[in-house]
Amino acid sequence: MRDIRVYHVDAFTTEKFGGNTAGVVPDADTLSEVEMQNIAKELNLPETVFILSSNNEEIDYKVRYFTPTEEVNFCGHATVGLTWLLATEFSLAEKKEGIVLETNIGRVPVVWHKENGKVINVEMTQVTPKTQDINIDMEELSRLIGVHPESIDLTYPIKLANTGVWHLLVPIKDQIDIDNATPDLTALGKHNKEHNISTTHLYTFTNLQENKLYTRDFAPGIGIPEDPVTGAANGALAGFLHLEGIIPQGEITYLTIAQGNAIGRPGTLYVTVIPNESEPVIKVAGAATVTIRGILTI
User: Which residues contact 175 (CB under 8 A, 6 or more apart)?
Assistant: First the structure.
């Protein structure tokens, strides 16, 4: 038998029992892929991240992300959770300003920001955003996500966006319509699987002038009925807003995104979009808090 250290870290929040919980396994070198999947299933969190050593001098750690049912190429909240844990619990912030992670979709640099010597948030630079058209009937879409057709805001295009994995972005007119959404999770999961979509992401601007948004995210196709607060989908959303010209393309834009309220796990993401010709840089930041420190025997 082996004892494996495991942590629960609530990401994108400063309050325990808020935000989105990630499982973090810091010593994963001895684990097989099957063991990683079984651990993720046992923890039964939206995602569990496994930290592995790297022989590359330019890489601090290799990481792999698993939902309870399958491996995914990238997870934003788990990245925030693991780097917060390393910076604070493992005191890495006393030695370095940040780290570089190797994921299945490429390198993800992460830095931590401090005030008075204390880490206040971590910020990841996601891979270059891209978008893709999708043809979908509005009646079908409204049934899949469980909103009235007139609640969908056709001011903005409905597209797929990606900063690591694909998300279906659906603009909704009002926050209340997002909160009242009752998706058909079975049908939505089947649809997303057929189109290689990780999550379906509902969003609305709550204050257009201040670049404040509210979102909600469903991922039944990868074993997550609802992801409380998601760094990957909101990073992809920010990239989409820039590429479509919905936010200014000639200046740095700061977005504040709220998510998780509908299921009692409110969280906040701070997203910076930096213009760089056709490849804007997307940075997603947030705080976190450790809630469980434990030992799993396998």
Answer: 204, 206, 214
CATH superfamily membership of 130-286: Diaminopimelate Epimerase; Chain A, domain 1 (3.10.310.10)
CATH 3.10.310.10 residue window(s) in the chain? 3-114+287-297, 130-286
pLDDT per position as a tens digit, 58-96:
999 999 999 999 999 999 999 999 999 999 999 999 999
Of 33, 47, 70, 97, catalytic:
47
pLDDT at 278 over 90: no
State which amino acid sits at residue 162: N
pLDDT tens-digit map of 264-275: 999 999 999 999
pTM value is 0.96
47 in catalytic set: yes
C-alpha–C-alpha distance, residues 95 and 203, integer Å: 38
CA gap 94, 230 in Å, rounded: 28
